[in-house]
Design goal:
By secondary structure, the chain is an all-alpha fold. The chain has one domain: Four Helix Bundle (Hemerythrin (Met), subunit A), CATH 1.20.120. Helices cover 68% and strands 0% of the residues. It is built from five helices and no strands. The chain is globular and about 45 Å long.
Length: 135
């Protein structure tokens, strides 16, 4: 399998994970667990950044810290800063949970976390398409 096909497969697998999160939070009366949703959304974003960076030949650290992955992700290409605020948003949610400050979270933070993951997916998928990485 060539590199472009591998990237397309990785993006597709991440899309499936995000769709599952979207489905889970969309169900009527579903109990949301921000902690669990945040972990999954953060992992999806980290995996998106890692897949894109690896395809470009950029080294990315093996870590669960999304900011460390982001720093390696943007190195050498400032145009990739477009996802910075999305990464920071999830880090902010994590910090609110860690400091027991649910009052500082937006309304429906679970939905916002999943939408943030979807936004990063769409941005990187579109960018990959425009750059001919998925052909």
């Amino acid at each position: 399998m060539d590199r472009n096909a591998q990237l397309a497969e990785r993006l597709s697998a991440i899309d499936v994970r995000i769709r599952a999160l979207e489905s889970d939070i969309a169900r009527e009366g579903a109990e949301s667990n921000l902690e669990a949703v945040l972990i999954q959304a953060t992992h999806c974003i980290k995996d998106l950044l890692t897949a894109y960076a690896h395809h470009a030949g950029k080294p990315v650290p093996e870590t669960d810290d999304p900011l460390e992955v982001f720093r390696a992700f943007v190195k050498g290409d400032p145009s990739l800063n477009a996802v910075r605020d999305n990464v920071r948003e999830l880090v902010y949610y994590r910090n609110c949970l860690d400091m027991d400050r649910a009052d500082a979270l937006p309304a429906r933070p679970e939905r916002m976390a999943v939408r943030t993951a979807r936004h990063v997916y769409l941005y990187l998928y579109t960018r990959c398409t425009q750059e001919g990485r998925l052909s």
